[in-house]
């Protein structure tokens, strides 16, 4: 297990180095900041001096190492627009995005797991078909449209929920539901199919032959095995939620990183865009690492097999 | 002059598969008895219904299969009509099962100790630590070395033979009256197979457990069984005490299976077996008359037309073959 963890950690480190290189290249491609910082009629001597002062005349490798060094100290540059440190801007918005991702996931799982389990246990019955159709219905609706429909129904018509903003629990319900509903079908179907497969396994028959009550056969023996693919999917979707909340954050004026990115793109605020993208990529990678470690814990075979590869 | 009633009676048992275009009979009117302390061998080629017969005893048939006739009785009590709760209390407690594939029969994500301890927790309501201690004992009893380490390991850490020992430990944990072993050694290599057979013989002697031992290999059955029933296409075609069966096999199918047993004097060419010609017919596409006639070397006209009756040809020796029926 330990060697598996170390192996996975070193992989993650490699990917993070890769992300930093891509981010650095992106920064290089986004143009020379000197042009933006000096007036139009600056002399070539003035340009030369500023370039030297900013270290832009150093070899690329030195510039990259300086970029990494700064990033490690939490310095991702400053916003061209507000002149605030990029890292501070992002960190200020991050909790809102994580919170929304968490509630969306919780919303999706609370609905999807029971649907998936019941469909698997009652396969071929009316309950099975009905719940799968319902889940698919959720999948086929784009979430910005769903968000707008929800606002029209629950805020405008019924006046039950606030349309936007963050702060109270009432405000997170709609954005979390709008994002969660599209994942319900995914998780319900995955739960159903993996559980069906697991229920046909020999060890389930063994569990029954031992005289275990059905709730232990299903709830313990079958479900822990069915959890393995589910956890992978949950991790991947969670990573996507963190980066992909751009639309829902905009529809519901949710003050997260997604809206920060949209705003920064409109302002051509490159350091903010680049910093946010880099940070979200890293979060994605780290979430995946955590998922893989959870996976190793769920499936004792994995840690052994993967470590020996 | 019938002796005491058997511990387990299978009485005219039929099992059907419920397919879209109607039921198909897979096991057809099987009658067998298992006496206390006895090992009953069930033998027959793959697909003849051995596993279904054994699952039906504990009502573990897959969905889509059902008992369509006959009865199963344990000490006179009918199991077929017992409420689910009662049959569950019996599984792993009074009647246990072990399976062919020790690789897949254990759950890969729980430790050996947990899986053995579960039986004690369920049937004897023991606490976690008590059940754990009993699990260590149970593993030691089936010859698992350093059981206190093994309880913390996962099935993937064990060899096939060790896993089958764990299955046996689990099955015998509550000292059941009956152990049903469905091809317990088929997936193991020959030396391990011999060790497991030796273990089962030893446990049977010590605990007096009655065993239903299933194999497609008559040679293996001969090593452990007291009484042997030969199955073909869901029916018992011959049944006799093991010595009697080998001395005087009356059904051509039984003789065919014996031809498929490597003979000790054929050491120089152990791979040359006298296989039975042809294939097992598929259920639902069975030939009329005697089900074995298309493959039978001595089939006559009557075999093609009419089902042979079951006749007694010796003490506890029955056979369903026209040749024997005509001779008696
Ligand atoms: N769930 C099922 N549905 C339909 N047919 C089945 C099912 N399970 C087994 N059978 C059929 O029943 C017959 C007997 O199977 P089985 O008892 O497993 O044979 P054995 O154990 O003797 O090899 C086979 O022909 C098999 O194809
Ligand atoms: Mg079988």
TrEMBL record, chain A:
Its main location: membrane. It is a multi-pass membrane protein. The chain crosses the membrane at residues 12-29, 100-121, 133-156, 168-188, 230-255, 275-298. It holds the Pfam family BPD_transp_1. GO terms for cellular component: plasma membrane. Belongs to the binding-protein-dependent transport system permease family. OppBC subfamily. This is ABC transporter permease.
From TrEMBL, chain B:
GO terms for biological process: peptide transport; transmembrane transport. One of its GO terms (molecular function) is ATP hydrolysis activity. It comes from the Bacteria. Its main location: membrane. It is a peripheral membrane protein. It is found in: Cell inner membrane. Keywords: ATP-binding, Cell membrane, Membrane, Nucleotide-binding, Transport. Residues 8-258 form the ABC transporter domain. Pfam families: ABC_tran, oligo_HPY. Belongs to the ABC transporter superfamily. PANTHER family: DIPEPTIDE TRANSPORT ATP-BINDING PROTEIN DPPD (PTHR43297:SF2), OLIGOPEPTIDE TRANSPORT ATP-BINDING PROTEIN APPD (PTHR43297). This is Peptide ABC transporter ATP-binding protein. The lineage of its organism: Bacteria, Pseudomonadati, Pseudomonadota, Alphaproteobacteria, Hyphomicrobiales.
């Amino acid at each position: 297990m330990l060697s598996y963890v170390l192996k996975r950690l070193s992989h993650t480190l490699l990917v993070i180095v890769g992300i930093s290189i891509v981010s650095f290249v992106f920064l290089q491609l986004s143009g020379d900041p000197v042009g933006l910082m000096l007036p139009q009629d600056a002399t070539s001597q003035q340009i030369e001096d500023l370039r030297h002062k900013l270290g832009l005349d150093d070899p690329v490798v030195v510039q990259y190492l300086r970029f990494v060094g700064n990033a490690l100290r939490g310095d991702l540059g400053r916003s061209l627009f507000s002149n605030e440190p990029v890292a501070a801007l992002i960190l200020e918005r991050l909790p809102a995005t994580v919170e929304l991702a968490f509630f969306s996931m919780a919303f999706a799982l609370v609905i999807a797991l029971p649907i998936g389990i019941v469909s698997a246990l009652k396969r071929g019955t009316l309950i099975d078909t009905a719940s799968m159709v319902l889940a698919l219905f959720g999948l086929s609706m784009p979430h910005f449209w769903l968000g707008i429909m929800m606002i029209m129904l629950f805020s405008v018509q019924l006046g039950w929920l606030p349309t936007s903003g963050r702060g109270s629990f009432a405000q997170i319900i709609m954005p979390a539901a709008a994002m969660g509903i599209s994942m319900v079908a995914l998780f319900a179907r995955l739960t159903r199919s993996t559980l069906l497969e697991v229920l046909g396994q020999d060890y389930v028959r063994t569990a029954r032959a031992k005289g275990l009550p059905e709730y232990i056969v299903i709830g313990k023996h079958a479900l822990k095995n069915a959890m393995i693919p589910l956890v992978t999917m949950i991790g991947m979707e969670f990573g996507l939620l963190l980066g992909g909340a751009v639309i829902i954050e905009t529809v519901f004026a949710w003050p997260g990183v997604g809206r920060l990115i949209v705003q920064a793109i409109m302002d051509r605020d490159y350091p903010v865009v680049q910093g946010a993208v880099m940070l979200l990529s890293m979060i994605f990678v780290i979430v995946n690492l955590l998922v893989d470690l959870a996976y190793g814990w769920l499936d004792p075979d994995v840690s052994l097999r993967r470590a020996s590869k | 002059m019938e002796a005491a009633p058997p511990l387990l009676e299978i009485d005219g048992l039929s099992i059907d598969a419920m397919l879209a275009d109607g039921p198909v009979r897979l096991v057809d009117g099987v009658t067998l008895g298992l006496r206390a302390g006895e090992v009953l061998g069930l033998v027959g080629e793959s697909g003849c219904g051995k596993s279904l017969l054994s699952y039906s005893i504990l009502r573990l048939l897959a969905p889509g299969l059902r008992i369509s006739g006959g009865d199963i009785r344990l000490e006179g009590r009918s199991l077929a009509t017992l409420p689910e709760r009662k049959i569950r209390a019996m599984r792993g407690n009074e009647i246990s099962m072990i399976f062919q594939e020790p690789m897949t029969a254990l759950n890969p994500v729980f430790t050996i100790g947990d899986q053995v301890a579960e039986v004690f927790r369920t049937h004897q309501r023991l606490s976690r630590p008590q059940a754990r201690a009993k699990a260590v004992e149970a593993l030691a009893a089936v010859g698992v070395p350093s059981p206190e380490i093994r309880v913390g390991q996962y099935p993937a850490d064990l060899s096939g033979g060790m896993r089958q020992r764990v299955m046996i430990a689990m099955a015998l944990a509550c000292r059941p009256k009956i152990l049903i072993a469905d091809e317990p050694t088929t997936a193991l290599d020959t030396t391990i197979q011999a060790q497991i057979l030796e273990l089962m013989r030893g446990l049977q002697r010590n605990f007096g457990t009655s065993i239903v031992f299933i194999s497609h290999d008559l040679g293996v059955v001969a090593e452990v069984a007291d009484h042997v029933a030969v199955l073909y296409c869901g029916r018992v075609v011959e049944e006799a005490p093991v010595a009697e069966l080998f001395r005087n096999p009356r059904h051509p199918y039984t003789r065919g299976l014996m031809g498929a047993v490597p003979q000790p004097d054929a050491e120089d060419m152990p791979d040359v077996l006298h296989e039975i010609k042809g294939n097992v017919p598929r259920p639902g596409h069975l030939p009329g008359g005697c089900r074995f006639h298309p493959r039978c070397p001595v089939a006559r006209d009557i075999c093609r037309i009419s089902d042979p009756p079951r006749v007694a040809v010796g003490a506890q020796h029955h056979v369903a073959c026209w040749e024997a029926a005509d001779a008696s």
